[in-house]
Write a structure and sequence with these properties.
CATH architecture: Up-down Bundle
Distance between the termini: 55 Å
Strand content: under 5%
Shape: elongated
Number of helices: 3
CATH topology: Methane Monooxygenase Hydroxylase, Chain G, domain 1
Structural class: mainly alpha
Order of helices and strands: HHH
Largest sheet: none
Number of domains: 1
Amino acid sequence: MANHTATKKSIRKTARRTATNRNVKTRVRTFLKKTEKLIEEGNKQNANDSLKVAQSEMMKAVGKGVFKLNTASRKISRLSARIKAL
C-alpha cells in the first residue's frame, strides 16, 4: 500500500479514470454491436441510422481520449463499407 500522500491521490485518480473509461468503452461497444446485428440482418436503412449514432459515440470517446482517432476511423470505415455492400 502507498505511504505518500501524492501516491495515494494518484491511485484514487487512476481508479476514477479507469471507471470512466470502462463506461465509455462499454457504451461504444454496445452501439457497435447494435450496428453489427442490423448489418447481419440485412436491414440497410436501420443499420445506416445506427451507424450514425455509433459514429457519434466513437468520436465522443476520441474526444475524451479513450480511443485514438485512427482506431475510431478504422472501425467506422469498416462498418460503413459493410453497410454499403448490403
